[in-house]
Amino acid sequence: MGERQADTRQTVLMDRRHLKWPALDVVERFLMYCCGISIIGFSLCVLFDILTRSIGAPWLWLQEATSLFFVYGSFIGIGVATRRMDHLMLSAMTDAMHGSIRTFFEVFNRLIILGCALCMIWFGGLNFLHGFGSFRMPSLTPIAWWYLTVPLSGFFVALFAIEQIVNGLRNGFETPVTDADARGFQP
């Protein structure tokens, strides 16, 4: 059990656990791995694109692969950032608040995020469906496969926003004080 918990701590952020369902830790870990693969894929594609162009024998498909890794990495990262609360949010303002006023603003912030996620799902889905009429060169792959990441990302953002709203209303949004916090930071 201890080994598995140590593995979880490496990829799943343990901060604000009272706002997270343990069942979604697997999803967060999977999305983090996908982001890592996308970053590595993007970096390698850029490297090989530069090298092959420098020697005068460019691999034209690398442009498509680079953009695909970039788009998927960016939009998957949006979902992960929502779960990890690493996204842009007015958290500094709400961290100073307490009680019902904090609950109001925390829920309000997450409802705004949820609204954006629903727009990503709806309009991203429409773009995905319309993307089968446009094609990437030279492979002639429908651009819809690049657009697919928008509604997928919106789904994860919505899921994680709902998770935080439900758990925040149930457990409170304030981070519980642990013994280590009460004693102060001990290096």
What would you say about this model in short?
Helices cover 71% and strands 2% of the residues.
Describe the structure.
With 187 residues, the chain is mainly α. It has one domain. The chain is 71% helix and 2% strand. It contains 8 helices and 2 strands. Strands 1-2 form a two-stranded antiparallel sheet. Strand 1 and strand 2 form a beta hairpin. Helix 2 runs antiparallel to helix 3, helix 3 runs parallel beside helix 7 and helix 5 packs antiparallel against helix 7. The C terminus is likely disordered.
Task: Map the helices and strands.
Blueprint: H1 2-11, H2 25-54, H3 61-84, H4 91-95, H5 99-130, E1 135-136, E2 141-142, H6 144-147, H7 149-171, H8 179-183
Antiparallel strand pairs: 1-2
What features would you highlight for this structure?
187 residues; two-stranded antiparallel sheet; 8 helices; disordered C terminus
